[in-house]
Amino acid sequence: MPVGNIAPPDVIHAINGVEIGITAAGVRYKDRDDLVVFRLADSATVACVTTSNKCCAAPVLLVREHLKQLADSDKSARYLLINTGNANAATGDEGYRRALQTCEALADKTGVAVNQVMPFSTGVIGEVINSEAIVKGLEACLANLSKDNWLAAANAIRTTDTIPKVASTQVAVDDSIEYSVTGISKGAGMIRPNMATMLGYVATDAPIAQPLLQQILVELTNQSFNRITIDGDTSTNDCCVLIATGDNDSNLIDSKQHPHYAPLFEALKQVFIRLATLIVRDGEGATKFITVKVTGGKTVEDCCDVAYAVAHSPLVKTAFFASDPNWGRIVAAVGYSGAKNLDANQVSVTLDDVAICTRGQLDPSYTEEQGQEVMSRPEITINIDLGMGDAADTVYTCDLSHEYVSINADYRS
Questions:
Q1: Which of 197, 290, 295, 380 could cysteine-pair with 235, CB 3.0–4.6 Å?
Q2: Is 394 a catalytic residue?
């Protein structure tokens, strides 16, 4: 079961300039929505980051190619085409041909250039995609395009996810202008984004110049999707897209000095972190939501290395599943993290408000009963102070349960 507050927002703000269509195309499963089309306004700018996995899927290759071609022209992406049930990864030339076929079909039906269609896939790796089913389903997607289909789309892109992942907010930047931000994501396993399986789509009606939009996306991804891990596996298909439709009366935001930049960035950050942490809360078999907060580092890289070492450790994660206050596992992970600037005698660790390790050894006030109580909580923060400087970083993760093994043992069935 997902951990903590996982409910969709009470209000999901429509984004002018974004319409979404959904259908059950039968890509892999029968009688469930599995195909999504986003139609973007002519005024929209689009930014994208993709997986660092070198065995990336055919649609990822196409997205990269199309974005490069568009960057050399005066055009932007107009359609996003997303399927679940099949990742179309490790499928060679045939997989690429079939992914391109779906882009060509949508371009033909909508009168845009082929490179204005961005394909995204998620699901089983190593099986050639059912492109015929996708092409056949395009008409139904286009027929029910609506700006209010965000929640339905979040449901349609799920694989092993147990919940739809949606976040939405608004921010007033002056007395007359308010921007909306809405996004969806998917992912529950094979999660260690490094730009997971994860997909993310966030849109705002603010007008943002494309170079700045790409910079914003990279920064936000590094603070959200690139700071989560469930099992340490980076997917072949990870992609995150940020859309700015410009369907607002304000002037173009083209630099960080623009007066609207700071409040809009904070609103976008709120949505990105919510979508990323929803993935962790819905981690396969998860029973605990764990925040690993590292402070006192000489560099951010040291803090990130330590946070990920702890968050990835199967011994740490299984201890949390068992509510076993075996704090030595945390200290051991800190020690092998590879952080370049580390003095074991300066390391202190607390679980929520319970000090367990101070300057490299057991805190004199610690009791096993305290550790047991905090480890039994559904949401726990591991605070690690390296005692070396002012840098900090945070990673979000979950525990590792028997259910995780069962889910992934049966995933292809």
A1: 197
A2: no
Q: Where are the alpha helices (DSSP H) in 146-248?
A: 150-156, 210-223
Q: What is the pTM of this model?
A: 0.90
Length in residues, the chain: 413
What angle do the packed helices 261-281 and 210-223 form, to 10 degrees? 40
CA distances (Å), origin 102, targets 97, 114, 129, 138, 192: 9, 10, 10, 9, 28
> Which residue among 50, 182, 197, 234 is the active-site one?
197
Per-residue pLDDT tens listing for the chain (413 residues): 678 888 999 999 999 999 999 999 999 888 899 999 999 999 999 999 988 777 889 999 999 999 999 988 888 999 999 999 999 999 999 999 999 999 999 999 999 999 999 999 998 889 999 999 999 999 999 999 999 999 999 999 998 888 999 999 999 998 889 999 999 999 765 545 543 347 999 999 999 999 999 999 999 999 998 898 876 555 567 789 999 999 776 789 999 999 999 999 999 999 999 999 999 898 878 899 999 999 999 999 999 999 999 999 989 999 999 998 888 999 999 999 989 889 999 999 999 999 999 998 999 999 999 999 999 999 999 999 999 999 999 999 998 888 877 776 765 44
Sign of CA dihedral 313, 315, 317, 319: negative
Per the listing, tokens 């979404």 go with 20
- Token pair for 198: 């994860």
